[in-house]
Amino acid sequence: MTQETPPPHPLLRILWIRTGGCLPLTSGGVIYSYHLLMHLMKHCHVHALELRGEGEEGTGDAVPYAHVLECISIKRLADWSPRRFFQFIGPILWNLFASRKPFVHAVFESREFSQRVRERVLSGQFDLVIADELLVAPTFEGWEKERQVPVILLQHNVEANIWSRMGGLQRNPFTWLFYQELTRRMRRREPELCRTFDGVLTNSGYDADYYRDTYHLPNVLGSVLPGTLPCQSEPPPAVLQQQAAPWVAFVGSMNWPPNSDAAIWFIREVLPLIRQTRPDVRFRVIGHKPPPSFYQLAASIPGIEVTGTVPAVLPLLRECTVQVVPLRAGSGVRHKILESMGAGVPVVSTTIGAEGLYLRDEHEILLADDAPALSAAILRLLADSSLRKTIAENAFARINREFLWEHSGDKLLRLCSTLLPKKAQRKT
Questions:
Q1: What is the arrangement of strands in the sheet containing 322-325, beginning at the earlier edge strand?
Q2: Is residue 83 pLDDT above 70, yes or no?
Q3: What is the CATH code of the structural domain delimited by 2-227+405-425?
Q4: What pTM did the predictor assign?
């Protein structure tokens, strides 16, 4: 599929390559890419080339985030859930014994997509190429000397850290071994793939430092922090006033293993501690594609609401008194925290959950890393409307100073321009 809307005048020409579309806005990674692309379109001619799964949402729709859109579809595995165990066991075993690639990369292989990427990059039509996340990186391997245009890898996470942290949470020996092997392969492949690019960008200073210090990458250009769109100038009534049966929110795509682990752990380990003091507290999970097993767990415990995919997160979030981010695994930056800060809803998070944002504990956020500490921090906020208001206002002020999408887009252009010849830079 190709969709084209010609730009009004000659601009810097960017080829943006990614897996999956940028609509609907159902995950932090998609939101990040979407807003950066929207900003680039104000200054550049953007040609997006996407690898999508068959039947993926939005496949046939026109998009606002590119002047030209190309899509190549492949048949790939469905999202993981325990009910689909036997769909995954065969491909996992084949990958384990017949390949050295990380399983998550093997799932997205497409010869047609690789060939199209190569054709577009070598066409001479573009001033800059941006590869969006490590999943597309293997398509750039082996023909570096043929490229006459700068190619940048935009990384949302340190991939190996995600799988290492998930592995540490496993009790099932099979899944523990799977994550251990995936981590081992990713620790080898991630720096290897990053070195094939002219530059690497991350979405946090923490990840940029990790790439430089641990992987010893010489081509890290810097970091482009995510942004948000503040929707109100003051916290909502659910934050400012004491509530009977207050809502505690969790926001996140539930088909992403770190998010589903966090929500399940909170329900089983943290919520019972909170309800020892406040039995009226309710828990709202706002997220895309919860597996059936999660609905079953939530239905077995009173006072838990699972919204599934919703048209807009903010109206539901602003009915809540606190958002909790109880992540025990992950990498990059959690957009859910910035979204909550922009909405005026105070956040309680684990250290991993808030990693990369450098927020000040007790000032813009409350941090706690085990079930008793998380429950105590949430109870403290639920009991103190003045503290909630202070945390929310401090967080909102920080958003306006440092975390707007305009700032993110401008920084992306500045860092990319360091690899552009002066002639191309003048086009911006």
A1: 304-306, 282-286, 247-251, 322-325, 347-349, 366-367
A2: no
A3: 3.40.50.2000
A4: 0.89
